[in-house]
Design goal:
Shape: globular
Helix content: 55-70%
Number of helices: 12
Strand order of the largest sheet: 1-2
Number of strands: 4
């Protein structure tokens, strides 16, 4: 079997052993089989679900790269991000932090590379932002982000109650189509064929979230930053998010 088929078989086994758990709970349980740094207190806060790292025979079982929708994908990163995309049934803690889903996916990857470029590029010999983005935000990270956002949206819509089935169906569609779906759903992008009709709108929405991630990561006043942390991006003025350096935020 392929790496993806092996992973799906394992996920189906987890689902069968937990028939009464929601897709939200299953996705968070799966986080325990990825990497230890995806089971920290920060992830518990972001997802609203505490999940310990699973050690022993199945340690890291769902970590590593797999071919998903025709593109190499960091599967551990995908599952961790997915756990922050799926809505918890009812009005629960996770609903208060749904907007962090961007930060644990695409905005976090782009923003982290920007932070490395700004603060550590001399030590790491990173001379340009493009180099930082290439070294610290791999293509397999971005494919994981797109998959998490699209699959999370499908599950939240009620079309799928099974994480494994949603992943399998996602895999049956080309990655280029999945990217279009991601841009449409998250940024309100519109396409004519393969041409994006409103790139300025998409870039502005993308930049706003990345700006927010960078600011929260650099905020010197922990109390103030945590107070702002619970506000949604729409409640924060773009002009107040970070110091001027607009060229740091790339057009994707």
């Amino acid at each position: 079997m392929s790496e993806l088929e092996t992973a799906l078989e394992f996920i189906q086994n987890i689902e069968q052993k937990n028939p009464n758990k929601s897709a939200y709970e299953i996705a968070n349980i799966l986080r325990g089989y990825t990497r230890k740094n995806y089971t920290t207190r920060l992830w518990s806060t972001a997802t609203g679900y505490h999940q310990d790292y699973i050690e022993g025979e199945f340690q890291g079982k769902l970590n590593g790269d797999v071919l998903l929708s025709g593109e190499m994908t960091d599967f551990g990163h995908f599952l961790a991000s997915l756990s922050d995309q799926i809505n918890q049934p009812g009005v629960q803690w996770s609903d208060l932090t749904q907007w962090t889903a961007d930060h644990t996916a695409w905005a976090g990857d782009i923003g982290s590379a920007i932070i490395v470029y700004r603060t550590q590029y001399a030590t790491l010999a990173v001379k340009t932002l493009g180099e930082a983005l290439t070294r610290f935000a791999r293509d397999s990270d971005y494919t994981a982000d797109v998959a998490a956002c699209v699959i999370g949206s499908l599950i939240n819509s009620g079309r799928y109650h099974s994480v494994s089935q949603a992943i399998a169906d996602y895999n049956s569609t080309s990655y280029s189509q999945q990217v279009k779906t991601f841009i449409r759903k998250r940024f309100g992008g519109s396409f004519q064929g393969n041409q994006l009709n409103n790139p300025a709108t998409v870039e502005a929405k993308m930049a706003q979230v990345v700006f927010l991630f960078v600011r929260l990561s650099n905020a010197p006043d922990r109390v103030k930053s945590m107070k702002e942390f619970w506000q949604s991006p729409e409640q924060l003025s773009l002009s107040n998010i970070v110091q001027p350096q607009r060229s740091d935020i790339p057009c994707c």
